[in-house]
Design goal:
Strand order of the largest sheet: 3-4-6-5
Structural class: alpha+beta
Largest sheet: 4 strands, antiparallel
Order of helices and strands: EEHHEHHEHEE
Helix content: 10-25%
CATH architecture: 2-Layer Sandwich
Radius of gyration: 16 Å
Distance between the termini: 32 Å
Strand content: 5-15%
């Protein structure tokens, strides 16, 4: 069973997971989506929840686990879009040169895992409308397609806010200091932030 906990800090909300993942084999679940989720044909319905509704492996990080952008054997990192992964790795190296450690708190997530996070948000906030401000549905989450990463570590979010655009990485939502996507233009300019996940 997966325990999901909402933590509020400075007006932002993080959903934390604190239980053992299921023993699903990541190499055999054809319902997973992402750049390298499967070597077979892509699913005709990539956002269908189906059997993955009970999945806790796809993006789960045990409490206290730390990942970096170089831990590609973990699907949370390994299934990131290749361009995003390269940008985050380059930014991580640059941050390290400045004495800042960038950890990956979340990256790629399966449809089922994102659905569980969304449903927990609905329970926490009391409605779908309010939950959407803090957690995306599987149909809209960039984590599900491997195009979003959440950073952590002391000073990492502040460093990324100042330096991320040099690598194409932009904070997308004003209420999520940790969430970055590869959305900067060729000049390293980020689009205006959205107030929250509802846009």
């Amino acid at each position: 069973m997966c325990r999901l906990t909402a933590v509020v800090a400075g007006g932002a909300v993080a959903l934390l997971v604190g239980a053992a993942p299921s023993q699903a084999d990541p190499g055999t679940d054809d319902s997973l989506v992402g750049p390298s989720a499967t070597a077979t044909e892509p699913s005709a319905e990539p956002f269908g929840v189906g059997a993955t509704a009970t999945d806790t492996f796809g993006g789960y990080l045990p409490e206290g686990a730390e990942l970096t952008a170089f831990d590609v054997e973990n699907p949370t990192v390994g299934r990131l879009d290749p361009a995003l992964l390269a940008a985050v790795q380059e930014a991580t190296r640059s941050a390290a040169a400045d004495g800042v450690t960038v950890e990956i708190n979340s990256g790629w997530r399966s449809v089922g895992f994102q659905q569980r996070l969304f449903e927990d948000g609905v329970r926490t906030y009391g409605s779908v409308e309010v939950a959407r401000q803090f957690v995306a549905s599987p149909q809209t989450s960039m984590h599900v397609v491997g195009r979003a990463v959440d950073v952590g570590g002391p000073d990492a979010a502040a460093w990324m806010s100042r330096n991320g655009p040099r690598f194409g990485l932009c904070q997308v939502y004003a209420n999520e200091l940790w969430h970055y996507e590869l959305t900067a233009d060729a000049a390293g300019v980020c689009p205006p932030m959205k107030p929250n996940a509802t846009g």
